[in-house]
Structure of Nicotinamide-nucleotide amidase:
Amino acid sequence: MSGMPGWDSLVDKAATVLEAARAQGFLLTTVESCTGGLIAGALTSVAGSSDVVDRGFVTYSNAAKQQMVSVTADSLARFGAVSSAVAKEMAFGGLSHSMADLAVSVTGVAGPGGGTADKPVGLVWFGLALAGEAPEAFEHRFGDIGREAVRLKTVDVALDALLSRLEG
């Protein structure tokens, strides 16, 4: 990943997230679909991250979402994989299937194809779950800026969300 434009700044941001998690005594987990593990990759690019990162789930398929983090078939059928409901279930499932205190999840349409009028290329839903609290979700619409750009911007927003939750 090193050498990819913008990757080094993401690793720097990941280091800041790790410091904040360490200060809170939190373990982190990621549950990733459209990023395919890039958030965990950024976090674990930082030396010493093993005391903060518990694990990462790459739940690219709907079956993986169900099997690995207990997303319900009902939510997938009713709302689709790219939805608030599924992002929340992914984050909550990440906590339930790990030792983590805080989980971030991402599910979206990175492109170049696969978008619809309701769920266009560049739409990503983010989930956050903190142990003992209800999971939350928010969306970002990056636009059709290219697959890698959507994925890297998703990592950036996910790291910002973790940092905001850790510091707020």
The chain has six helices and five strands. Helices lie at 7-24, 38-44, 62-69, 73-79, 84-96, 147-167. The first helix runs from residue 7 to 24. The first strand starts at residue 28 and ends at 32.
